[in-house]
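Q: I have 225 residues here and want to know how they pack in 3D. Can you give me a structure?
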Amino acid sequence: MKQVPSDLLLGGVLAAVGVLMLLLNLGLFGAADQMIWAVLFGACGVAFLSVVAQDRARWWALIPGMTLLSLGLLVALAAFAPTFAASWGVMLFFGGMGLGFAAIFMLRPERWWTLIPTGTMLTLAVVAGFAERLAGPMAGVVLFGGLALTFGLVAVIPAKRPRRWALFPAGGLLALGLLILANNTVMFATVGPALLILGGLALLYRAFRRDERGQYEDTPVSQPH
């Protein structure tokens, strides 16, 4: 099957979208305008995804493709299922965006940076979808916990060049999540300080070990006469 050039495909879709937008602005669709917008966003999303399907080197098209497709789904849900859209629409939108970045990583693992927006968007999706079900500070705990997990994955996924730097934001975000939890639960009234004590002792142990190794390395070796 002959492939359609991506420029021709996107150009045709954008021109068609422009015509439909003009007709929408003229009020020719009446009450159906919301559904037309959903179709427009969805068609643009499919057009970008088809670009990637034909040429994987244009992986970048996954980002606008999944974003527009998710936006079209959100608009359609708002038109036909407003109650469901109010509860889960934003979750589906952020989730779709996250899946777009995840698809880039699956397609091109060397684009490891896509893991960061993937984890961020999926975390926001969970927080948005369960905001009313997460009691009080638990939304913050889930947010910081999800971001910490994201940077943790960046650090541990095999790579030619280690990305241990990602452990620092992962640890900081995890600590923020634990502090939020510590200030709002009875359990962490004792567990929180215990974790801080253990962390401090681990750092002290590491510092003493480093000093001992330094002393051994600085000790001069006597030369035979």
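Q: Anything worth noting?
A: The chain has a mean pLDDT of 79. DSSP finds eight helices and no strands in the chain.
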